[in-house]
Specification:
Distance between the termini: 21 Å
Number of strands: 0
Order of helices and strands: HH
Strand content: under 5%
Radius of gyration: 23 Å
Shape: rod-shaped
Largest sheet: none
Number of domains: 1
Number of helices: 2
Structural class: mainly alpha
Low-confidence stretches: none
Amino acid sequence: MRNIDERLIRMHQRASEIKRQEDMSRLRVLGSLSGGLLVCLVVVLQQLQNLHHGVMIDQSTGSSLLDDSVGGYVLAAIISFFAGVIITVVIYKYRSWNEKKDKTEEKA
């Protein structure tokens, strides 16, 4: 039979394993979401390329965003921003998970 200290160590190990599994499942979801956003971005840019053959030089001011034909570019920018945010969160979580893993390995 195990003593109390061994049981506590085993309980903490199991809790950290469950937490790691939950973090990995969240990372998979975020990775899938960023992949989906990437596909959407590629499709939007492909459609924009088919509709507009290049950017007009005389409309290169900030007021050109008010034109009806640039809505797709704004949508592509928003999708790119969200994809960047998701990738940043995934990298941050992955690094913090590795740091916690290294600390727990040092303690053991």
